[in-house]
Design a protein that fits this description.
homodimer, 336 residues, alpha/beta, Peroxisomal Thiolase, Chain A, domain 1, 2 domains, seven-stranded mixed β-sheet, 35% helix
């Protein structure tokens, strides 16, 4: 019966929660040097992976991450019935080329840094909706392809303010199945696009924090839950500044700041230099989920996780034209 | 029970086919002068709609189209539970700004000119899957925003080869509901990304024809249907050249060329000058569906329609780097 899985305004609850049967992550050299290096499947020796361009390297990184996630379950690309994926590049070229090489039916998603959660929640609806038994969901970003698309030629060496974030070179992929064992996607909250009038592309955390606050508040309200239902509530990549703003918004909204709250963008490079306010990019939340976080779930160190990936949705053209930066946040609850 | 709605390799069949309860289309001046001018809801008087930039005009066109589709059913934006939409612009700015203004929970999709069908098929899965009762699906393109993003500054007046296509200024939106009356989305085929090694961005029809052939062949095979099951099989925007190539691929694949086959890109500007091989852009198939085609279905002139929207997935950066143009085609069967 249609509509029976919806709770409140923006949240859906799965009848038969899709299983995360396997997952994989590949990260760049800088990400591998961070505190979670041992938790990723593969650390790239350099940013080119034997390719001629950073763009081709990003494509290869994503393709290999999806293959690795399938391989861990003894599967081939043709065993995945559909691939939901996205990246930061114009026209989703990294995902499109990977989908062409893997020959898996493909739905391209764009949610900026929120893409991994958009893929997991949409994929979970397609599995629980009875359409597929096995779906691949993936996202990636590459520091140097993003820099030259969104900001300045890397060679120019433009200085950045401390509020800016470092686009992660990273990819994550999960396999969602209708049955089996593993962590389960139990509910999801689709975000609204929130535009608070912020225009500084060097401070995406401030633009994204209100979207994260809105989605977390709606998720808890829709399911009538308190924040401490979760062992960990983790945002995608607000960075230090965005996290501080979200903390204030929690107070405003009556969501008491919780010791169980953290941010993938802050965690990814903890203690590293030159990353400004923290990590960002589709690959940030994707690799943190498909590396450290799911590893902790597998070891039962985290049993209930709310992953809230955030995306800033400006383009260089609209920023140049003085437009504001709309932002979005999608949430998935994963339980094991 | 998961997976029970899948047929063959790439097709899903809906248990309770979602209803297209209302729809709307807005087109630009050139599209309004074409043979279908009377079938669109609104023809823009110019390309700016009172805005300062073409980008803001595209955003406004999409927002108004979604509002108009809702209004025809007596609905407000808050009555739509989720919006699935996309456009051609980097980071989907037209869709993101529209989603921010409408405040509908949003899932951004990128399938280039195939986006409208990607939105309808994904939205149909979310409705039939039991997650939502009312979903909005929309797509748009604007000739002048696309020209300056993908090709050359409009003011430069670069000449184009006859194989090139004219990006339509157009938007289409549909409201999908779990119950009610209207044409029904009965099945859908998710396309694979096909890369035949074509590199000429001025000949997208040739790049996209093999993807259309692949999806149509899979759709017919998965459902064990002959092409004459449909009153009309219509591709998104292959243009004249792409249509001719698809005709040859039909012969190769044993899908006999049918009198019931046509192409939105060829039809949109029939008889107009300076449009090269035909129309293109997300708005081409979206406006043809939400104008002439659904009007014909409503009048029972077409009872069974297979809409196969095609997308060429190159970016200016990958084209500049000499990469090929991968392409995709998604199909939805609409019956009334």
């Amino acid at each position: 019966m249609p509509g029976t899985k919806k709770r409140g305004r923006q949240t859906v609850v799965f009848d038969t929660p899709p299983i995360l049967s396997s997952w994989a992550s590949i990260v760049g050299p800088k990400e591998g040097e961070g505190p979670w290096g041992n938790d990723f499947d593969l650390i790239m020796p350099d940013y080119l992976l034997g390719e001629e361009t950073w763009e081709k390297a990003e494509n290869k990184m994503l393709k290999q991450t999806i293959e690795l996630a399938l391989d861990k379950s003894g599967l081939n690309p043709q065993d995945a019935e559909v691939l939901l994926a996205g990246d930061l590049l114009n026209q989703l070229v990294s995902s499109n080329f990977a989908a062409a090489q893997l020959s898996i039916p493909f739905l391209g998603l764009y949610g900026a840094c929120s893409t991994m959660v958009e893929a997991i929640l949409t994929g979970s609806m397609l599995v629980d909706g009875g359409f597929y038994e096995r779906v691949a969901a993936a996202a990636c970003s590459h520091h140097y392809t993003a820099e030259r698309q969104f900001r300045f030629p890397t060679e120019q060496g433009v200085q950045k303010p401390p509020s800016s974030q470092w686009t992660a070179t990273a990819a994550g992929a999960v396999i969602l199945e209708s049955s089996g064992s593993g962590p389960r996607v139990t509910s999801a909250t689709v975000g609204r696009v929130i535009d608070m009038g912020q225009t500084d592309a060097n401070d995406m955390g401030s633009a994204m924090a209100p979207a994260a606050a809105d989605t977390i508040r709606m998720h808890l309200q829709d399911l009538n839950r308190l924040p401490d239902y979760y062992d960990l509530i983790i945002t995608g990549d607000l960075g230090k500044l965005g996290m501080a703003i979200l903390g204030q918004l929690f107070v405003r909204d009556g969501v008491v700041p919780q010791p169980n709250y953290s941010d993938c963008g802050v965690l990814l490079y903890d203690g590293k230099q030159d990353i400004g306010s923290g990590g960002s990019g589709c690959g940030c939340a994707a690799s943190m989920l498909c590396g450290p976080l799911l590893k902790k779930m597998f070891k039962a160190e985290i049993k209930k996780l709310l992953l809230v990936a955030t995306g800033a949705l400006m383009s260089p053209i609209t920023s140049f034209q003085g437009s504001t930066i709309p932002a979005i946040a999608h949430a998935v609850a994963i339980e094991y």
